[in-house]
Specification:
With 289 residues, this protein is an alpha+beta fold. It is 22% helix and 30% strand. Strands 3, 4, 5, 6, 7 and 8 form a 6-stranded antiparallel beta sheet that branches. Strands 1-2 form a two-stranded antiparallel ribbon. It has a two-stranded antiparallel ribbon with strand order 9-10. The protein is elongated and about 185 Å long.
């Protein structure tokens, strides 16, 4: 074979090998830099329910490429999470963020999920609300209260009319479930209970409406979580809807009539004869009667 051709082929192989080596070094450096830019953060070792107090067994570590999520806990600070309560459900492998945990020392349970200045109040609801399942944590509801009209007017009425009014709007549901309570005979019974997040003033209003005294009842109405506006809702009643009830009593209207003048007891007639004048008097028929 021609020596010149062999030289050219050998030179081409050398150049190709050098280029392949350079490409390998560049790609390898990039991959190495990418792999080194990871951060080890704390994650959930298994599914963790709301209200759980974290222990070492609940925590694991994962590597995250690039910048870690805001609020993520670094692996070196894992021990600082032990004893803190979880305020929202966490899933296995999910990075644990500081915003998903209660402040240190506040413990666990539902109390840890209550923001400062707010209160959690449990109210009993009917089976329809419980079975429907719409009153789940995170939902927002309006609270309606119905009361007999005689209680509002503090006086007996002619009909059994019920008045309903929206007393609270845009209230967040913290939890819902079944509690065991005792009835009047001391026997245990299951009661549907919903815990609502309210202010202290709203808690007083809700307490008065949910006592059940004098026939008062409450009802929850589901609303869109994105609809946070409150409206001026007027109270309503059964009588106003159906036009029912007895009409209001109409007082009789008396019209005063002018009295007729009393008839004169006597009547007189003047008689003129030429330039002479005379007067004749006689009794009227009405005066004789």
């Amino acid at each position: 074979m021609n020596k010149r051709l062999l030289t050219i082929l050998l030179l081409a192989f050398v150049i190709a090998g050098a280029c392949a080596f350079l490409v390998f070094r560049v790609i390898g450096n990039k991959l190495g830099n990418t792999q080194s830019a990871t951060t080890k953060v704390v994650a959930a070792a298994a599914d963790i329910k709301l209200g759980t107090v974290l222990t070492a067994a609940n925590l694991s570590s994962i590597d995250i490429s690039g910048a870690p999520p805001k609020g993520a806990i670094l692996d070196k600070d894992k021990n600082t999470l032990v004893g803190r309560g979880v305020i929202s459900d966490l899933f296995q492998g999910e990075p644990i963020l500081d915003t998903r945990l209660a402040p240190p020392g506040s413990g666990g349970g539902m109390a840890a999920t209550i923001p400062n200045g707010m209160r959690a109040m449990a109210v009993k609801v009917d089976d329809v609300v419980g079975v429907a399942g719409f009153a789940t944590p995170g939902m927002h509801v309006d609270v309606l209260s119905s009361v007999p009209e005689r209680v509002v007017n503090a006086a007996p009425t002619q009909q059994d009319n019920t008045i309903v009014k929206t007393i609270l709007q845009n209230i967040e549901v913290l939890s819902a479930g079944i509690n065991i309570q005792k009835d009047a005979e001391g026997k245990p019974q299951q009661v549907q209970v919903v815990n609502l997040l309210v202010t202290p003033d709203q808690a007083e209003t809700l307490s008065l409406a949910s006592t059940g005294a004098n026939g008062t009842k409450i009802q929850l109405v589901l609303r869109n979580p994105l609809d946070t506006e409150t409206q001026d809702v007027k109270e309503n009643s059964v009588g106003a809807i159906f036009g029912g009830g007895l009409p209001a009593a109409v007082k009789p209207h008396f019209v005063a009539r002018a009295k007729a003048p009393a008839p004169a007891p006597h009547q007189s007639i003047e008689i003129y004869n030429g330039n002479k004048r005379s007067e004749e008097k006689f009794s009227s028929p009405e005066a004789k009667q």
